[in-house]
From TrEMBL:
UniProt xrefs under InterPro entries: D-ribose_pyranase, RbsD-like_sf, RbsD_FucU
Record's protein name: D-ribose pyranase
Gene for this chain: rbsD
Binding site for substrate: D28, H98, Y120, A121, N122
PANTHER family assigned: D-RIBOSE PYRANASE
Species annotation: Enterococcus mundtii
Length: 131
């Protein structure tokens, strides 16, 4: 059995297959996911699992060089923004319109759906390298 923190087989597989500049997305229960993007659905009920729980889990294995957030998070969900910034203080953030984020899901290896029920709790993680 795997000893690392990411024990979900689909998430582990996607992370293992990622290379430099590849993207993985994590988001709230309402984010529309393109049919061409793999959706790993972890949502059980409202708030379970939370966006931040899943993000922390993924960050335990994925090297991230940049994150992308919806511009709207600044006004509509400043608490989640603050939590992300605390979790990843050294990681550069690029803010993009939410409409662009939805389009960018077409370029992600996968989208991990959480039970999060707060607005704009979505992130694109750009993979870095460990060397």
């Amino acid at each position: 059995m795997k000893k690392t923190k990411v024990i979900n087989s689909d998430i582990s597989r996607v992370i293992a297959q990622m290379g430099h500049f590849d993207k993985l997305s994590i988001g709230d229960a309402g984010m529309p996911v393109p049919m061409t993007t793999e959706k790993i659905d972890l949502a059980v009920t409202q708030g379970v699992p939370s966006f931040m729980e899943v993000l922390r889990n993924v960050l335990s294995e994925l090297e991230v060089q940049r994150i992308y957030l919806a511009e709207e998070i600044k006004k509509e969900n400043p608490d989640i923004l603050l939590e992300i910034q605390k979790e990843m203080p050294e990681t550069p953030i690029t803010f993009i319109p939410h409409s662009e984020m939805k389009t960018e899901l077409n370029n992600c290896h996968a989208f991990i759906r959480t039970g999060e029920m707060t607005p704009y709790a979505n992130i694109l993680l750009e993979s870095g390298v460990v060397f």
